[in-house]
Design brief:
By secondary structure, this protein is α/β, with parallel strands linked by helices. The chain contains eleven helices and 13 strands. It has two domains: about 210 residues, P-loop containing nucleotide triphosphate hydrolases (Rossmann fold), CATH 3.40.50; about 70 residues, Alpha-Beta Plaits (2-Layer Sandwich). The strands form three sheets. Strands 5-6-7-3-8-9 form a six-stranded mixed sheet, with helices on both faces. A four-stranded antiparallel sheet has the order 11-12-10-13, sandwiched between helices. Strands 2-1-4 form a three-stranded antiparallel sheet, covered by helices on one side. Helix 4 runs antiparallel to helix 5. The two termini are about 30 Å apart.
Amino acid sequence: MDTVLEARGLTKHYEDFSLRDVDFDVARGTIAGIFGPNAAGKSTLLKVLARQTPVQSGSLRVFGLSYDDAEQELKNRVGYVPQEPVYYPDKRVEWIARFVAPYFSRWDGAGFYALLDEFKVNPLKQVKHLSGGQKKMLSLALAFSHGAELLILDEPTAGLDVVHRRALLDRLRAFVADGDRTIVVASHITDGLDEIAEEIWFLDRGRAVLRENKDDLLARWKRIHFKDGALPQAVEDRLLGVKRLPFGSSGLTGEYADLRDALAGPLARGDAKVENASLEDVLLSLIKGA
């Protein structure tokens, strides 16, 4: 496996919050999704990965290199989009491009303006007249246009309408399609990102509490619908978030393989039904159980 990001024991302390002992590996050509509630530490982790903030302890290597030894090279190869982009408000979009371009050895001006056109961002507008969604699209256009091999994206779909969100998801898929480029994306909601992420991280209160391949994760997690009294009590007791409804009940399990035999009878009688859980179901269950 060609590892693009390798982090060990990353720790960052603030007065009222700490990111603690986070280990992180991302393989080339993948999309890694970091999910969790607000204030879980997602933005802090991404800032650390993009060298926007220092850590108190731990090590980080990107493309096998350290920021301490190769910061300029790495910042040419990494595209970072923060949750809330900050620009000179009185400057036009085209000025922002001219200001940014000299910092990147592989800047693609034609590609940048093509993306502005695709994203419906007027290059002659002052930044202060852009909507929140347009500012996010400007940041994405900048990140896509300097030849980055790794994109680090914080809440990239926030503030986007359904059309722009779908277009962005398609573009992110295309970005990694050649197997040479990689994305790390963080969000407090799945918002379509669950469709494209292959590796799932769940962060809560500064700690990584889940790290798993998405297909393996969803194979374990199922939603069980059942008639009241149809399941052995020991099985029902192991279900999470059981909801009582007029025509039956339902609950989640992250241990489906362990319950399969006990569910065989109710399933055969038609007293129970199993369906795939969504990633959102899983994450909400983890939040409530944390």
